[in-house]
Amino acid sequence: MNTMLPVTLHSDATKLLLLDQTELPTIEKFLEIDTREDLYEAIKKLRVRGAPAIGVAAAYGVYVCMRKETYASLDEMQKDFSSLKSYLASSRPTAVNLFWALNRMEVRFITECTLKTSTQDSVLTGLLAESKAIFDEDQKMSIAIGKHGLTLFSKHMGIMTHCNAGGLATTGYGTALAPIYLGFEQGYDFKVYANETRPLLQGSRLTAYELNKVGIDVTVLCDNMASLVMKQGKIDAIIVGADRIAANGDTANKIGTSGVAILAKEYGIPFYVAAPTSTFDLETAIGDDIEIEIRDGEEVINGFGKRTGPEGVKVYNPAFDVTASKYITAIITERGIITHPDRESVTSHLKNK
């Protein structure tokens, strides 16, 4: 269903190709990246975004950046890897898939270096193989989430989304949008309501863009319309993605998500989170321990070049909030469904492969 991969490797494996999502929905522009500075900027400025896509970009980026260098020894190569990993990890603090992918690349790097036959070329070959594996797993993950999620939906439903967790946030069907895409392919008649998602409008610019492009019925809502539309009975279910899920099921997602979940509880509407198991962070006990990224206030009062607030005014611009697990009906992963998520059910789900 995803006709434009937001992140992939150039055919000759020398560059990372990224769909510049800051230009959507009006311009479809691909960036060719082969330096660590450009990759950092692309992640930081949301040219690539969505937790799974960021992870894939980081994995491919490690390989692309290191293959350009010439090292005097494997020790020098390892020092550069550590520096590159730390640099990319500092780009965005909340989405755990970034760190998960970098850690996987580090494990592969160390494994390749410890072989008796290790050379710089063999290490690079291993890094390329690992990054491709992360890409392939991401595609399989989204289809599996879609199949599990679709079991929770009937053929004629109004579904609300918040932010973008579709093909543009992964390399496949997405997470939250995966059941919608699969249902559409099977003749389900969904009516999707996409919250615009202030301040960067990922709902209207990205979710509505990709759903509309394939012919799925989608309506854009201002964020503050959510309560009214729920009260009017237009919404049968809500599904969102996640950037980090704590050990007790508390979930960090785009700012505004927790308010939607609280409203859903009030109106008796099921609230689902769709995310791969790589988004769980068992070292983070509860949602309050998740570091929330604070972004530039100009995104709020001078978004997209249009000033809507006075110069010099103070702005608070957290990129994410945390939805307590008590408001989450179920979490959908590539392994299945966690109903009424808590520490016990999350731990059990992650142990049972």
Automatic annotation (TrEMBL):
Biological role stated in the UniProt entry: Catalyzes the interconversion of methylthioribose-1-phosphate (MTR-1-P) into methylthioribulose-1-phosphate (MTRu-1-P).
Cell division found in the keyword field: no
Residues noted as binding substrate in the record, renumbered to the chain: 49-51, 92, 202, 253-254
Catalytic reactions of this protein: 5-(methylsulfanyl)-alpha-D-ribose 1-phosphate = 5-(methylsulfanyl)-D-ribulose 1-phosphate
Catalytic machinery residues: 243 (proton donor)
Entry's EC annotation: 5.3.1.23
Taxonomic placement: Bacteria, Pseudomonadati, Spirochaetota, Spirochaetia, Spirochaetales
Enzyme class, broadest EC rank: isomerase
Natural source organism: Sphaerochaeta pleomorpha (strain ATCC BAA-1885 / DSM 22778 / Grapes)
Family: Belongs to the EIF-2B alpha/beta/delta subunits family. MtnA subfamily.
Gene Ontology MF terms: S-methyl-5-thioribose-1-phosphate isomerase activity
Record-marked site positions (Transition state stabilizer): 163
Domain of life: Bacteria
Pathway involvement of the protein, from the record: Amino-acid biosynthesis; L-methionine biosynthesis via salvage pathway; L-methionine from S-methyl-5-thio-alpha-D-ribose 1-phosphate: step 1/6
Name of the coding gene: mtnA
Keyword Chaperone carried by entry: no
Protein name in the entry: Methylthioribose-1-phosphate isomerase
Keywords, sorted A to Z: Amino-acid biosynthesis, Isomerase, Methionine biosynthesis
Transmembrane segments: none
Any single GO BP term: L-methionine salvage from methylthioadenosine
